[in-house]
Amino acid sequence: MRTYWLGGLVLLAGWLALVSWRPAAVPEKLSEYGFFAGSIAQQRPAAGVVPYTLNTPLFSDYAEKLRFVKLPAGQSVPYNETEVLHFPVGTTLIKTFYYPHAFRNPDKGRRLLETRLLVHQPGGWKAFDYVWNDEQTDAVLEVAGETKTVQYVDAGGTSRQHTYVIPNLNQCKGCHNRNEVMTPIGPSVRQLNGDLAYDSAGTGKNQLQHWQQTGMLTGMPALADCPKTPVWNQPETGSLSDRARAWLDINCAHCHNPQGPAMTSGLNLSYGETNPTALGILKTPVAAGRGSGGHAFDIVPGKPEESILIYRLHSTDPGDMMPELGRKTVHTESLELLRAWIKSLK
Fold first, then answer.
1. What is the torsion angle, in degrees rounded to the nearest 10, for the CA atoms of residue 14, residue 20, residue 23 and residue 27?
2. Do residues 129 and 169 make contact, with C-beta atoms less than 8 angstroms apart?
3. Preceding omega of 78 cis (within 30 degrees of 0)
4. Where are the domains of the chain?
5. How many C-beta atoms surround the C-beta of residue 281 within 10 A?
6. Of 53, 112, 216, 336, which shows the fewest CB atoms inside 10 Å?
7. What is the pLDDT of residue 9?
8. InterPro entries attached here (predicted)?
9. pLDDT given at position 173
10. DSSP designation for 84
11. Burial 131-163 (b: 16+ CB within 10 A, else e)
12. What value, to the nearest 5°, has the Cα angle with vertex 11 and ends 5 and 17?
């Protein structure tokens, strides 16, 4: 029997079958990229791979993340005050998800679960997901997604166990698409405007300044003139409103914005939104169905428990919960922040 490959289609003696499509040029194993020096599980960046962090990151069932960027040789990123940075073709964004065995004692080790890549190809951004083996020696390309049971001791000292979902490649589009075009979500100037230790001594340095000084970022004004996202759970970094809005921006606004997958909802949770109705204040839902929890408005000033926003973030029912992807647990700490913010609204 002769077999012919046509993209994601296979011809088997006249029969047409749809199979999992895997581009031939994509490495089978994460180690083949050469992103890391030495033992790949140590996640020590190789030359040309730069670590970064976000002031307020996306919640992913309490998973911790290691982030890196690799720019093509000789290329840089132009400064952009309002949007996610426009990385040149050839850029790879690298994000490894892991759980410490004990959050209060990182020396007890960690379990790496997946490493997601966003690769900026000539035709646009492409997502690839690599799932770590049980031996923690490498990660293998996975297109269909997977579920794993994770166990750890949380920051409060409580032993926890739950299911962790690794998305399939089509689900990546559910969050990363804007106007049907895949794009990164996190690395904006305001999110990168914070300190990160780049040396073994743990000395903190502002990421924007580091990128500027190493030639990665061009056109940057004085640091004092750059916007800065507060850290959602550090009151000294911003007001209650600013921190709540920062959390909603990174966790919800990639869908709930005028160009996102949830544009038809009319809800815009972007950090810079100033229209109270678009933000959800006394706004009736377009088509929440039972996801409204019987409530009339997305946000009711002074009344968090009557707000659909709180109901959906607190739910773990697949038909009600928000976000729809990326979590199976409730982010208790952010709900406390959002409840306090809604109570403060008049």
1. -130
2. yes
3. no
4. 24-224, 234-344
5. 17
6. 336
7. 37
8. Multihaem_cyt_sf, SO_2930-like_C
9. 61
10. B
11. bbeeeeebbebbeebeeeebebbeeeeeeeeee
12. 100
Lookup: tokens for 315: 């739910």
The strand pair at 217-218 and 77-78 is best described as parallel
Cα 246 to Cα 157: distance, rounded to the nearest angstrom: 27
Burial of 188 (0-12, 13-18, 19+ CB in 10 A): buried
93 dihedral zone (left: phi>0; alpha: psi -120 to 50; beta):
beta
Neighbouring C-beta atoms of residue 340, cutoff 10 Å: 14
CB-side neighbour CA atoms (13 Å) of 222 = 2
Query: How many C-beta atoms surround the C-beta of residue 193 within 10 A?
Result: 17
Q: What is the model's pLDDT at position 316?
A: 86
Q: Is the dihedral of CA 289, 295, 296, 301 positive or negative?
A: negative
Task: Read off the tokens for 293.
Answer: 């929890």
DSSP 8-state secondary structure symbol assigned to residue 108: G
**Model pTM?**
0.87
In this predicted structure, what is the pLDDT of residue 176?
A: 62
pLDDT of residue 3: 33
Helix (H) or strand (E) holding 311: helix 308-314
What SS3 class is residue 309?
A: helix
Q: How far apart are CA 196 and CA 327, in angstroms?
A: 27
Distance of alpha carbon 210 from alpha carbon 172, whole angstroms: 30
Amino acid at 244: A
> pLDDT averaged over consecutive 10-residue blocks of the chain (346 residues)?
35 36 74 97 97 96 97 97 95 98 96 97 95 97 92 95 88 61 90 92 91 97 97 97 96 88 87 93 81 88 96 88 81 97 96
